[in-house]
Amino acid sequence: MHDFRCYNADEMYDPVLAERYRYLRETEEGREIMCKLVEDRVKEACKLTAERVEKETIVRIAKETAKKLISLGTLSYELISETCGLSVGEVEMIAKELSA
Q: How many secondary structure helices (H) and strands (E) does the chain include?
């Protein structure tokens, strides 16, 4: 565990780990590898965040649409559920919120 807390390869006990650390931190090739890894992780995190935001947006719009359809009072909860892609239970909860 000591070696994983070190910022300087010269302080490490394990020579194999120290050499790899030195390569990744102190050579141009090593820095390029690390930059690529970090860049890939950032891209992956951004993609996951965008997917989550997109899903949340779709759900929000579906619920807003359901509220409008419930307010019209002409459609069944089942039809609103099918139209908005929500469960009947979700539509019922939205209706309760509107009547409260």
A: 4, 0
